[in-house]
Write a structure and sequence with these properties.
about 220 residues, Rossmann fold, about 40% helix
Length: about 220
């Protein structure tokens, strides 16, 4: 009798809520060489396994996925959605991210098409309260416009945040581009001075998205 009552109580409890579904995208267009790709994949793994980031991911039951995108028609879901329920789950996901083979080589940069593909992936995680796409890289030069994809994200209630990859120096044309044409209302841009700064910039971005103090 007690066992029956216990099972009834357990099944009556609401499922733990997923606070955020966060899709991390990687630019693998023709401007990205093998060393640049490695900096992105390793940087992603490094940022996820930062202790503060890991704690925030597990606390929020965050769902993670990774998309690689390049030119028109070249997008793929490299790592499908997984809930970060334990620190071990984060470590495993990070290791898989570091080991991902590069999906495409030698094509244009179709940011808008990459975003449209990413938007479609959220159909698999409808229970997550917030839906966020991380957009790294440079302005697009192919496919339909980034602004059109931005409009589709807004209509779907998806937030677009960006990491702009800038050259060393004070100028920030890529940051301005992403701020003006890509991020959604309430979204933000963080600037990396070259891909060697990508891991640290992504770490800070994740802490900001997940509501932890940046430090």
């Amino acid at each position: 009798m007690f066992r029956v009552a216990l099972l009834a109580w357990l099944f009556a409890q609401p499922a733990l809520a997923c606070e955020t579904a966060l899709l991390l995208s990687i630019d693998v267009s023709g401007s990205i060489d093998s060393a640049d790709y490695r900096l992105q994949a390793d940087g992603l793994a490094s940022a996820l396994t930062d202790p503060a980031v890991t704690e925030a991911l597990v606390r929020g039951e965050v769902a993670l996925a990774v998309v690689q995108w390049s030119g028109p028609g070249q997008q793929t879901l490299s790592l499908s959605w997984q809930r970060m329920l334990t620190p071990e789950a984060v470590t495993t996901f990070a290791a898989r991210a570091a080991a991902m083979p590069r999906a495409f080589k030698g094509s244009d940069t179709a940011v808008g098409e990459g975003l449209r593909f990413a938007i479609a992936q959220f159909a698999a995680v409808p229970d997550c309260t917030a839906q966020v796409i991380d957009v790294p890289g440079w302005p697009g030069n192919a496919g339909f416009t980034d602004a059109k994809a931005r409009s589709e994200a807004i209509a779907s209630g998806i937030t677009l945040n960006a990491i702009a990859i800038e050259e060393p120096g004070p100028a920030a044309p890529v940051t301005s581009y992403y701020r003006g044409w890509v991020i959604t209302p309430g979204g933000f841009v963080m600037t990396a001075r070259g891909l060697r700064d990508y891991a640290e910039t992504l770490r800070l971005k994740l802490l900001r998205e997940l509501g932890d103090p940046i430090g």
